[in-house]
Structure formats: structure tokens, C-alpha cells
Amino acid sequence: MKDIVQKLDLADETAGRLDWLGEFGKDSEGGVSRLLYTKEWVEGQHALKEWMESEGLDARFDEIGNLYGTLKGKNPNETVLTGSHVDTVTNGGRYDGAYGIVAGIIALKYLKKHFGEPVRNIEVVSMAEEEGSRFPYSFWGSKNIVGLAKREDVESIKDFDGVPFVEAMKNAGFGFKDNAEGRKDLKAFVEVHVEQGSVLETEETAIGVVNNIVGQRRYTVEITGQANHAGTTPMGYRKDALYASSHMIHEIISMARKVGDPLVTTVGKIEAYPNIVNVVPGKAIFTIDVRHTDKEAIVSFTEQMTAKMQDIAKEHEVEMNIDLWMDEDPVPMDQTVVELIEKQCEANGLNYKLMHSGAGHDSQIFAPVVPTAMLFVPSLKGISHNPAEFTEPTDLAEGVKALIGALYELGYKE
Amino acid sequence: MKDIVQKLDLADETAGRLDWLGEFGKDSEGGVSRLLYTKEWVEGQHALKEWMESEGLDARFDEIGNLYGTLKGKNPNETVLTGSHVDTVTNGGRYDGAYGIVAGIIALKYLKKHFGEPVRNIEVVSMAEEEGSRFPYSFWGSKNIVGLAKREDVESIKDFDGVPFVEAMKNAGFGFKDNAEGRKDLKAFVEVHVEQGSVLETEETAIGVVNNIVGQRRYTVEITGQANHAGTTPMGYRKDALYASSHMIHEIISMARKVGDPLVTTVGKIEAYPNIVNVVPGKAIFTIDVRHTDKEAIVSFTEQMTAKMQDIAKEHEVEMNIDLWMDEDPVPMDQTVVELIEKQCEANGLNYKLMHSGAGHDSQIFAPVVPTAMLFVPSLKGISHNPAEFTEPTDLAEGVKALIGALYELGYKE
Fold it and tell me: Please, which residues have CB within 8 angstroms of residue A24's CB and are 6 or more apart in sequence?
């Protein structure tokens, strides 16, 4: 196994296939816009189906448009699944999602070539949607696979042009599943993805074996003070919403830095009102995004955080309204699969590290019902959701090798 | 004098005239939009001219559209001037500017009625423009009176609809002055204005005698860090432009509060980039507005402020660019006129306090060349540049009484 894996020369092939796939939805700004059920998306999925077939895989769509390519095993009732999502954000890059599909097809190609028929099916999936970029709904692909997608959640939603979800799906040649239940044959899911962060790059490590996907809470905070003339209102008369907000933001982020990894806390968005140079802001609205791999840690930090903010609001004599509008639990990966991947990386001489994912992925939809793990490769400068997304071809190849090892272990062993 | 002044019942008349003037440019949102050289402005000025004439004043426009109403004195070569600007901001109130004109006309009416011909001319002016709301130019009215207006400053400017200043002026029936020199006959200027702050209201004082108009510096600060994914970027890897900015804003405002009156410092405007909940801000831009009655204090505070900001930028490893784009010196009022007004207020039993103006006014254009002072009346909750601008009719009346006293002292004494 080690001899075969180490001799594989996958860099050009993987990078080349990503360039090829990136042509579907290539936009005028040099990025990729391949949104669910658009013309570009349909063409991309059909091109992937042809490629799968040309590599000798059994290729088929499910009802909603997830594309599968299967390397059939002796036991047709058990399937090891790999893959990722084919959709992109608007003006995204060539790697997010796409890399997991390309890595999967190439891995299956070489598994078939070197090891023949597996014990159970090994399948690559090009999932319909994960990003939530066209319609206000995310994980449409994976949720349909595991049986979490609900018809009523998408029946009345529309895209930014007013096109109904159902109409777009129909025009793309797809429809709802007759049977809303999830697949029962899945024995494992392994997703390969670009890190979208800079930990691997900074630590000069090719592969991240993900043992946890963070949970997150998102808040919108509205601070109400009093708008006043910047010249005629003495400092002592003011209820400055931006002064109070700045105090809070500085405290929140400082607290999060003190707590340290894996906690991350971000104030990404702020608006002041009326937002004029010579008016004391009467209102300020900002967001908070808190993530950690441990639910207890999220609860504990956000409790301290809101208590601190309440103190500051009181001190500044402003009103505060905190709205918690997202509260997602962390999703642990399957420890058996994680350890199996680690062992394979070691056995094949690949440079890896255990890490968590700070971003959401299809794997978090699979993990509660299927033994799931993820593999990361470095993202240049952590850039993602951007045309400048880039991973070195040699790193792309290492990721495929790690996937080959994992799928071999999961698919060819009794 | 005291008997006459105290018996005057001016509340309804003054408030009524402000309502009447507010009809010129009354907008659909309940405010007043009477911008320079618009139809509403032209109609308002001509209506004021008729009113001046009906009160027995000699009324005339100058070349650019300043309107004067004169109570002629024995000495025709000396003039005591009062008044303010007739233009408003977009969707402004009924008091800012307008009150100074209405107060002036009513003061002249009662001076004429009770004291007849003065020693020197007493004149009320309805100045063309102060706000800079239509064109990118402020104080067009007062600058023309004192000879500071320059033809080349307005010759190529346009309003938001692309209408050239010169064309708008021509269509309103006005043009440039032949002689760019300022008036030589002015012996004093006294402007009555709403405070646009809440000091008088809070201290339950009807009249503010202004001894100084603050100087101010305005800055735009640009902080550049690095935009990163909010989930995948550990706290220690970040260069968070909004975290650094919050630290600065909190420090700056706290420093200003510590220094205390009459220093005021405002961060009124902030923009974060890309301003998305799940992206660490790579850039933040905010403004700073610093005002004080003493130039040295402004210099000293802003030096400390920028030094502190540089320290914070260094600590946060972000780049900082500070642009000082406004630097106006404080303008002291004439101490002789100020004392004369104070004495008159005392003599007439009016409740006043000495104070500075935190906002800019036409008086700051006059003060360097003509002995100048200002009178303030309370603004409800300090609200200004807003349809909700309001001053109690009884307070409006007190301001007119103080003006009558001042103009009597300046116009009827040898």
C-alpha cells in the first residue's frame, strides 16, 4: 500500500481537474459562480457524470440532483461515501467543495486500478448544494442523503431574482424525492476539503485530520443611546451608542483572546446611526460570532460575555438588546474513522495533524447518523469564498493520497 | 427700557412668524427643505421682503441674494447688523437660521415703535446661505457681506442634480457682486440662534450669551488589518481592524471625557469591511471630530490622541492612516459687545448664562472683521437639523427681548 501510494503522481491531475471544473460557472471577475440549479451548475454536474463514467464508475443522479459515481463492491448493501458539494458562493473560488469531488473521483480511479473490486461499494458524491448562496437554505444536498431535508422548507422560498426553488429544480431536470428517508447503506463518510483557514499553511503541514466541527452562536446586538450634535453636546450629556459599542467590542474580543484556542469570537459587522461625522451616534448595531468545539465552553463564554456587556451598557446608560439567532452544537467526528485515517497517514508517510474545523461542512449533516471524518489541505493565506482561493498542487495530491488510504481501509477491509 | 421690554408680549408673534416662514419649503416629511436659490428659497426671501416693508423697514437685496431690512438712523454711514441665514438643511427644522431673521425683524419693529429713529442704522439680514446643503460651499451669505467670498470657489461647483451654482443663482434672479470688497459701514453684528444643544434646557436658562465659537479638527482614520474567516482563523492569527478600531474609539472618547468641558470629541461615523458577520474585518474607517474654545487645547489633545492611537495600532499590528481634513481655529466673540449684552440682560431682568457655541455660525465669519456676539435660546432636547427642532414660544420671546436690549444699546447710544 505504502509503495503504491507514495509512487502516485497526482499533483497535475488534481490541479488540472479543478481548473477544468472551475470553467463551469467561471465569472467575469475571475471567480466561479456555480449556484444551485443554474445552467452552469447543470452543465458542471453532467460533465462530472461523464468523467465518472469515463473512469469506469457507475454514475447516476438521485431525484434532487446529487450525483454519485460508484465503484461497486462484493457487498452491494454497504457503501463507503466520499465527496463534497458542487455549488459555490457567488464569485467564489475553484477549491471549496469542488476539491472534495475531484479528490474522490481520482481516489476511486486509482483504487480501482491498483486494488480492483472492493469489499463494499465505494462511492463519490457531487452534492447539489451546501452554501445557501442562491436560496435561503443550506445543505440541501447532504440533508437529502441522510433524510433531513423537508419539502416544506423549500416549497415557498425564492432566489434573489424571485425564481421559486421548486421551479429552478424542475428546470434543472430534478424534483423532490418520493421517499424522504435517508440512505441506509452508508457505513462511513469521508469528506476532503480545503481548510479555509491558515493553520496548516502556518504550521507547514499538508494534511489536517478533523476530529471536530465547531459549534457556533451568532448574535445581533443593538445599542440605543441618544443622537446629539457633536459640537453642542458636552461629553457628560451624551449617551453615545458607538462609544458603548466600542467598549463592548474591545472587551469581548479581549476576553476571547484570553480564553484562547479553540475559542474564536468575531465582531464582523457594525453599523452606526445616523453615521455622520458631526453627530453623536444614537444607535449602533453589531454582530457577534462565537465558535468552539465544546458546547459547554460556548455556553460559559457567552454567559460571561453577555454579563460583561450588560455591565458596560449600564455604565454607559444605554439600552442593549441582544438577539441570539444562531445556536449550533459542535459536531464531533467519528473517533474510529479519525483514528483509522491517522493510522493510514502514518503508514503511508504523510505529514498530518489533528485539528478541528472552524467552518461548517456537509460532514456535520452526516456525522449524527453515519461514522464521519474529514481531511483538510492548506488554503493559501486562509483565503476562501474568493477567486484567490488556492492550494498548492502538491498539497492537493497529499490530500488525495490520504483519502485513498482512508477509503482503502474502509472499503477493502472485511 | 426695562418697563417697555418686560411688557412686550412676543411669544405668539415670534412663534407664529416661524410657522409662517416654515411654510416656504415645507416638505412631505414634516420638515423644511429650503435650499439656496431653489423656488422655495426665492419665495421665502420675497415674502420676508414684503414683511420687512410692511413693518416700515427699507428692504433690499444685494447682488447675490442677501436680503436686508433697514431701520434708518441719523448717521447713514454706520450700521448695526443682526440676522441669520434663510437656508435650511434638507429636511431640517423651522428654527435654525430662521429664528435669527424673525427675531431681528420683530426687534426692529418694536425698537422703531418705542424708540423711533436710532443714532445709526439698525439692519436685519436674511442671509442667502450658511448650511452648505445644496452646493459644496458654506457661508455664501456672510462671506459675501464681509468680502471673503471668491467667485472662483463657486464657479465650477454643482448641486446633487448637476445644476451649476452660477445657473441656479441666475435663475433665482441674482449674480456675482461687482465689488468683492466687504461692507465698511458695519459697527457690530449680533446673531440670535437656537442653541442646537441641550445646555440651556438642562440648566433651565432662557438665554445664552456666546463668548466663543469653538475651533474644530476633523479626521478620517483608516485601519488596515487582514480579512479572515471568522471560524477558521485562531485569535492569535488575526489582524482585526475593528478590534483595533474599537480599542482606539474607546480610548479616545474616554480621554476626552477625562479632559472635560469645553472639549468635545465624537466618533460619529464608522464603516467596517467587508462588514459580514462571519468575516474578521480587514479594514475599518472612522471619523473623529474634536472641538474646543482654545486652539492650544485642541492641539494638545489631538497630539495625545494620535500618539495613543499609534500605540494601539502597534499593539494590534495593524496599519493606521490618519487624515486631518478640517482644522478651524476657535473664534472669540467681541468682549465689549458680549459685556454690553450681559448688562442689558441684567438690566432687563432676563435669565442668561455665558457660554460657548459648539457649532459653527455666520458669526464666525463676521467676528474677525466686525465686533460680533451671539445670543442663544434653548433647543428642545438639543434637537436640530431635524423636523423635530423646537423652542418654547416663551423662550423665543426672551431671545427677542435680549436682542432688543442689545440693539438698543448698540444703535441708539452715541
Answer: A32, A34, A40, A41, A43, A44, A47
